[in-house]
Design brief:
Shape: elongated
Order of helices and strands: HHEEEHEHEEHHHHHHHEEHHHHHHH
Number of domains: 3
Distance between the termini: 94 Å
Number of helices: 18
CATH class of the largest domain: Mainly Alpha
């Protein structure tokens, strides 16, 4: 008898010890999950973690995780083991809705005996729900964040108060983690909206480059992701993580933000002369035309009054030839001005002709001799390439400095701290001939090298620039390859850009 009591006591002690060990293991699970939840920023990954931990800690078969949608006043099932379709529940409806309204845990040992249980889900999935444990997730401020609902404790056991306490403890940790994740999402959306608004501000000042920043960002990010597939060359084995890619995308989106600091007339200058300058020259040519016509009209009158009819007729023909030749020379001069005003490469022959026009003078209304073209006008029309003179080009180039100063004012997170530096270097060249700092190859960040290729490719192939035609893809690549030969761009990155088909993300010429 004594031996039987001793054996029974020993068994009870072992069972009790086993229960304690199980509880300790479960508490350790909660602690491990709490630490993991604190490090999770990805919302979906966090939900998966909570659902799996909830199922494990109470040894349940399945778990459904409901999130409270404050705007809609509903619960929605973000995670539901064994169920494909999402469920939306009004607060107070169903078991989860009841727990969300009362904020009290609920144990149901026989699901089919409870009128609040919805059997339709079991019918649709072929699953048989026996018992249910449902607890609210309430954050530190007392706000309901969602509901954890677990089904069918394993080994046909009932859920008990110990399970309830464990799940409540986990739910409290989960609520805080979810609240932090929500806050992180809101901050991320706010920051993304700020970036979007900044890009809009850039493009509002220069509508001709609409979409450029977004396309450069897409091209740069695609090139960055292509590095992990490289099998030869200096970039083998380089894999840029999600945070680095995100930092690069922001830098690319904001690389031209400094244009807000450039004068609008310089930023939008389409031709070598501003519209008011060209209008003044056109008016001057019109005045000279009228002067020539008036002068020859007076000569005709004098001719008619001073000689015989036959002599006047012969003189008239000579005058007509002379005025026609002089007016044609004036028209040719205006055509030269019009052609030279376009932002194309100026021929050497046109340059010398423009210089000659500077020697042509006329008399204004007060009889004062004036040049047909001023030295400043000839200087602008003689710009070899593009539409900007030296001073204006320096002003445009200063946008990089403005970009860096602006971006440096933002308190970037540790993961995004290099955004200003990357954007600052996107016009640098490997040869050291870029701007604004004249950096050499080893001083230019990899991200900026990639952005340089994307920026130049899009500028060449863009079809929305009124001052130039879009360059076809093949010709654009040839131009980029020439830039590599001149030491401007990274040839290995350009090879990856071409071979990986990076340009396809924004291909413009089909």
């Amino acid at each position: 008898m004594t031996e039987q009591k001793s054996t029974a006591a020993s068994g009870e002690s072992e069972a009790h010890g086993s229960d304690i060990e199980r509880q300790v293991r479960k508490l350790n699970v909660i602690l491990d999950v709490a630490r993991a939840m604190g490090a999770k920023r990805d919302f979906d990954a966090l939900l998966d973690l909570i659902a799996e931990a909830s199922r494990r800690v109470v040894e349940a078969d399945r778990c459904t995780l409901y999130i409270y949608d404050r705007e809609a006043g509903e619960l929605w099932s973000k995670i539901a083991h064994g169920q494909a379709e999402k469920i939306r529940l009004a607060i107070g409806k169903g078991i989860a809705g009841f727990v969300a309204r009362t904020r009290e845990p609920l144990i149901i040992q026989d699901a089919y005996a409870d009128a609040r249980f919805n059997r339709d889900v079991d019918r649709a999935t072929g699953y048989r729900t026996r018992n249910i444990l449902c607890v609210p997730m309430v954050d530190d401020a007392g706000n309901i964040t969602g509901v954890i609902q677990v089904l069918n404790k394993r080994d046909d056991l009932p859920f008990d108060s110990a399970d309830q306490d464990l799940l409540l403890a986990l739910g409290g940790q989960a609520a805080v983690a979810l609240q932090n994740a929500f806050l992180h999402q809101e901050i991320q959306r706010l920051f993304d909206s700020f970036i979007k608004a900044s890009v809009y501000a850039i493009e509002a000042r220069d509508p001709t480059t609409h979409g450029h920043s977004e396309r450069v960002a897409e091209l740069t990010v695609e090139l960055a992701r292509s590095l992990e597939h490289v099998t030869s060359g200096p970039y083998v084995g380089i894999v840029l993580g999600d945070e680095v890619i995100r930092e690069l995308r922001y830098a690319a989106l904001l690389h031209d933000f400094g244009k807000v600091g450039v004068r609008e007339n310089v930023l939008l200058k389409e031709n070598k002369l501003y519209p008011h300058e060209f209008a003044l020259i056109s008016a001057r040519f019109d005045f000279v035309r009228r002067t020539i016509e008036h002068r020859y009209a007076l000569k005709r009158i004098d001719l008619l009054q001073s000689g015989t009819l036959d002599a006047a007729h012969a003189g008239m023909q000579e005058l007509e030839h002379a005025v026609t030749a002089e007016l044609k020379a004036l028209d040719d001069a205006l055509d030269l001005v019009i052609a030279s005003n376009r932002p194309t490469v100026l021929d050497d022959g046109n340059f010398s002709k423009l210089q000659a026009l500077g020697e042509y003078t006329y008399q204004d209304a007060r009889g004062i001799a004036r040049p047909l073209l001023t030295a400043q006008e000839i200087g602008c029309l003689s710009i070899r390439r593009g539409s900007l003179n030296t001073e204006e080009r320096h002003e445009i180039e200063s946008h990089v400095e403005f970009t860096f100063k602006f971006l440096s004012q933002i308190p970037w997170t540790r993961e995004l701290k290099n955004v200003p530096t990357i954007a600052y270097a996107h016009h640098e060249k490997l040869s050291g001939e870029g701007y604004p700092r004249g950096l050499h190859a080893d001083q230019i960040p990899l991200q900026a090298r990639m952005m340089s290729i994307a920026d130049m490719y899009d500028a060449l192939t863009a079809s929305d620039r009124p001052y130039k035609k879009a360059v076809p893809h093949d010709k654009a690549i040839n131009i980029l390859q020439d830039e590599c030969k001149r030491g401007s761009l990274d040839p290995d990155l350009l090879r990856i850009f071409v071979e990986s088909g990076v340009f396809q993300v924004v291909r413009k010429d089909g």
